[in-house]
Design brief:
This protein has 331 residues and is an alpha/beta fold. Helices cover 50% and strands 10% of the residues. Bound molecules: 2-acetamido-2-deoxy-beta-D-glucopyranose (3 copies). The site of one 2-acetamido-2-deoxy-beta-D-glucopyranose has 6 residues, from helix 7. GO terms for molecular function: ATP binding; ATP hydrolysis activity; kinesin binding. Keywords: ATP-binding, Endoplasmic reticulum, Glycoprotein, Nucleotide-binding, Signal. InterPro entries: ClpA/B, P-loop_NTPase, TOR1A_C, Torsin, Torsin_1/2.
Amino acid sequence: MRARHVYVLLHIFLTVGVLVNAFDPITTTVVVGIGATLGRTIYNYFRESCDSKWIAFNATGLRNDLDTKLFGQHIASRIILKAVSGFMSNENPKKPLVLSLHGWTGTGKNFVSKLIAENIYKEGMDSSFVHVFTSTLHFPHQSQKATYKSQLQQWIKGNVTNCERSMFIFDEMDKMHPGLIDSIKPYLDYYDKLDGVSYRKSIFIFLSNAGGESIIQTVLDFWKQGRDREEIELKDLETSLSLSVFNNNQSGFYRTNLIDKNLVDFFVPFLPLEYRHVVQCAMAEMKARDIKPDQDVADRVARDLVYFPKSERVFSVKGCKTIESKLDYYT
Ligand SMILES: *[C@@H]1O[C@H](CO)[C@@H](O)[C@H](O)[C@H]1NC(C)=O
Ligand SMILES: *[C@@H]1O[C@H](CO)[C@@H](O)[C@H](O)[C@H]1NC(C)=O
Ligand SMILES: *[C@@H]1O[C@H](CO)[C@@H](O)[C@H](O)[C@H]1NC(C)=O
């Protein structure tokens, strides 16, 4: 899209340039004027704007993606679909949507954020209304905590002022300085407007490994009892999840009152992935690359991963994370 509109603009200017040489000064002025107006119109036509042409939620698309591209996450999938669909179909939400996604590496937290973005914004993760903050990248130095706090506030305020349907993703919440998130707490709350800006139509997504251990323990217990993983319900995980997130002093959530003030709408657990899910990931990745999915290759990829706990070897240590690069090697 971007490359094409640059090309169109270039073409117009070249055409104008050629015409200019052929006419007298008055005609030239007119032609240049028309060229510039046309150029601007076309530029605006292709430039992403904060309206329904560029931002339109596709509930069917999200359901489809969650059903066919995300594996082993029956709880997360259900909560995400319900939360996002409900929020996006509400013309008058009382607060922004705040999701906190928890789980081990490679279980699909980043991936789900991407699916959400793709089904809301035409440009998906490339949209200028989707913002990703990574603690190690944006907020690396403990000593500059105060600066980061005000910077983050300004960014969010500036971006929501630009477009109220903005989406903010905070990756690696575990590595974020405790307290940083406090600075944006007011934005997540039930305020009509703050300094004339309403945050109620924005989406905030927090990603972290916090609580991952307690999720694994629950899933492992089910597994040991020979029970079906799909029998696990949110309530089996919720209490231990919110406790371990809140009490973990390594987490960016530590002692913030995001949690006790109920500013987080949904805690979404991501379960550790088993061998069969890794196989599904590999098959899906082949399909996405237009290679004929090959069960044999998928099995070889999955067999090559490391599984834990040491004695049972049930869950993939890196989930589906390394599948992409591994496939290059096997196909
Ligand atoms: C919504 O998603 C479905 C399924 O992916 C797709 O077929 C449909 O074209 C999408 N609708 C719009 C308006 O993009
Ligand atoms: C929006 O957020 C980005 C960081 O993702 C920041 O660089 C930019 O300055 C912000 N825009 C405004 C208008 O504040
Ligand atoms: C975090 O908690 C652990 C155990 O609860 C404790 O050993 C450690 O000293 C704490 N770290 C900080 C920075 O408070």
